[in-house]
Amino acid sequence: MDVVARSGFAVMALLHIVVGAISIALALGQPGQAEATGAIEQLAANPWGPAVMWACTIGCAGLALWQLSEATLRARRKARKERVGKLVSSGFLAVAYGSVGLTFGGFAVGLRGDSGETTRDISTALIRTPFGVPVLGALGLTVMGVGVYFVVKGLRRGFKEELFRFEGTRRGRIIDSLGVTGHVAKGIALNLAGLLFVIAAAKQSPEESTGLDGGLKALRDHPYGPYLLVAIGAGFICYGIFALVRSKFGRM
What we know:
Layout: H1 2-27, H2 36-44, H3 49-71, H4 80-108, H5 115-127, H6 132-155, H7 170-203, H8 211-220, H9 225-249
């Protein structure tokens, strides 16, 4: 299970690197979707696309199962409070990685989709329900909360506990820099995506909620947006390289 989970971390690393490259391309005026679906579409377009899609599906499924085992089987050894926290955090990650695996699987069998349109459709359906507006607002605040968590984790170097120690070495300093830059950039991007959900709920305008891709494209339209977009894209690439290191040297 640990071996398959490591391959899943490598898949997530690859996705972040491709998303970062697409973000930089957007800043330079090129088309693309700067989120997971857009990155998967780019990977599927190469000659080895189907094989890559199936391999990534297996890796993400293994990572989701590993997180599920962390939330249940391995959490039994912990104290009650820690067990509940692990159930929530690892359970959420299991769902997240599983959904990415399903997207890879969809591309493997020929299905395609636009995540921005999917997000708008979900937001529209929510707003039409009696409690849809507060639920959409809460969803946006949750995404922003996760973004803040990533920023704080990066600045406090909380990611170090996920890796074997490289203190005092050149490798350790490089990994430290990648971790800080990557986590902060990902946190900022998630805050942009969450903010769009909050705006959509406040205006009761579901077309405003376009996910990560919409948030980054909205940023591009501001005076200094392209420069910030390049910085965020570079940060995503740093996070991807860090995740690749974690897939090799991470504590499991």
